[in-house]
């Protein structure tokens, strides 16, 4: 009898130990994640992002750095085109940098607190913690959460997030539309908590001059960065403004035709970034053809239902040639494309809009004329509208991705 009692005691002890060392349920993991975020000091991660939002899948290398309390650096690189764009936040504000073009947007914003990003750890954890209807599963070396997607693109409905069992580092993210089609996926190949960064890792000047060094941002030396030369019109290393070449001022409130999203010849043109330039183009076939030969027309593959293209003509943005598309119907908007030769530094008031393959900046009034500006493959795009929703603006912008100029 005593032997049986001892056997039962041993079995119970083993069961208790197994339970203590066993798998964790969703509530326990969520509680742990809340604790991790509360003590998060820094991290650095890298991987590959695949977008299925265009006519064909596009892959981008992603490198993400964070330092408490509000320093961020996200580099998106299109390996096929050898193009890198950097989103930077430091004490001086938020910067969207296109280093190989010496192009910079600078503005004040609380980004990314006001918008989720699929490659930011805080955004992923918040989506898990905030979704009370979250679904939970367990794999060999990962916890998997299926939760609602909370991104600027309203077409993205749900996402699956894989977290490493050992330290809750992200392994993979898949974001799907309402039909469960995966539109965005991120696979992290490396993720490190408690990363130590150089003092100037989040400095604008350094990122503009050292963007193409593989060891950027944690181990490149200042001397190496200096060899690449200073940026025309860049700010000083502390983030304060220097001489700004091509500085543009915030857009004035539009009136007349511009306020309705309908351009008129000789009037103030839509689709400018932080300023409205006079467009004085003659819509002749020869002029349009000449402009097309200079940089190639990229026509969006997506047009909202009930909308038709009404006009295609050459216009002027200052001294630069540009092509203007005008659409009308259910929505009214214009798209201006140009390939500027001058390198510019632009200070403006606006908000960041995540286009997936790049970052856009929205300026204008929330219930008035708004302009979405972005740069891709050396081209500047300006989408101006008074009635398109942010989701429709994103879809139009994404539809030029991977297109070949005609």
UniProtKB/TrEMBL annotation:
Coiled coil ranges: none
Pfam family, one: DUF4367
Signal peptide start-end: 1-26
Keywords: Signal
Designated name of the protein: DUF4367 domain-containing protein
Domain of life: Bacteria
Ranges of Low complexity composition bias in the record: 235-284
Occurrences of domain DUF4367 (ranges): 298-400
Transmembrane segment boundaries: none
Disordered: annotated span: 229-287
């Amino acid at each position: 009898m005593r032997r049986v009692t001892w056997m039962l005691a041993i079995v119970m002890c083993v069961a208790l130990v197994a339970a203590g060392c066993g798998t964790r349920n969703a509530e326990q993991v969520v509680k742990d994640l809340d604790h991790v975020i509360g003590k998060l000091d820094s991290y650095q991660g890298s991987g590959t992002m695949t977008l299925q939002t265009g006519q064909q899948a596009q892959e981008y290398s992603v490198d993400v750095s964070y330092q408490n309390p509000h320093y961020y650096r996200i580099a998106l690189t299109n390996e096929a085109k050898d193009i890198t764009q950097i989103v930077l936040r430091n004490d001086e504000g938020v910067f969207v940098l296109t280093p190989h073009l010496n192009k910079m947007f600078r503005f004040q914003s609380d980004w990314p607190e006001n918008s989720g990003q699929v490659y930011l750890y805080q955004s992923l954890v918040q989506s898990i913690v905030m979704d009370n209807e979250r679904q939970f599963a367990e794999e060999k070396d990962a916890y998997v959460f299926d939760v609602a997607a909370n991104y600027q693109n309203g077409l993205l409905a749900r996402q699956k997030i894989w977290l490493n069992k050992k330290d809750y580092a992200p392994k993979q993210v898949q974001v799907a539309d309402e039909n469960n089609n995966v539109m965005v996926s991120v696979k992290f190949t490396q993720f490190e908590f408690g990363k130590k960064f150089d003092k100037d890792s989040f400095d604008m000047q350094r990122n503009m001059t050292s963007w193409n060094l593989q060891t950027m941002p944690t181990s490149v030396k200042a001397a190496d960065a200096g060899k690449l030369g200073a940026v025309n019109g860049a700010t000083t290393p502390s983030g304060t403004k220097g001489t700004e070449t091509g500085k543009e001022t915030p857009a004035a409130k539009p009136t007349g035709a511009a306020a309705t999203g309908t351009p008129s010849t000789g009037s103030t043109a839509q689709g400018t970034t932080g300023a409205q330039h006079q467009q004085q183009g003659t819509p002749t076939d020869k002029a349009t053809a000449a402009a097309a030969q200079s940089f190639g027309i990229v026509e969006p593959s997506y047009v909202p239902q009930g909308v038709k293209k009404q006009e295609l003509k050459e216009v002027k943005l200052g001294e630069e040639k540009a092509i203007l598309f005008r659409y009308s119907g259910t929505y009214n908007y214009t798209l201006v494309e140009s390939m500027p030769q001058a390198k510019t530094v632009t200070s403006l008031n606006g908000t960041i809009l995540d286009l997936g393959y790049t970052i856009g900046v929205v300026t204008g009034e929330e219930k008035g004329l708004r302009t979405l500006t972005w740069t891709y493959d050396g081209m500047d795009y300006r989408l101006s509208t008074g009635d398109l929703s942010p989701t429709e603006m994103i879809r139009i912008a994404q539809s030029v991705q991977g297109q070949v100029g005609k």
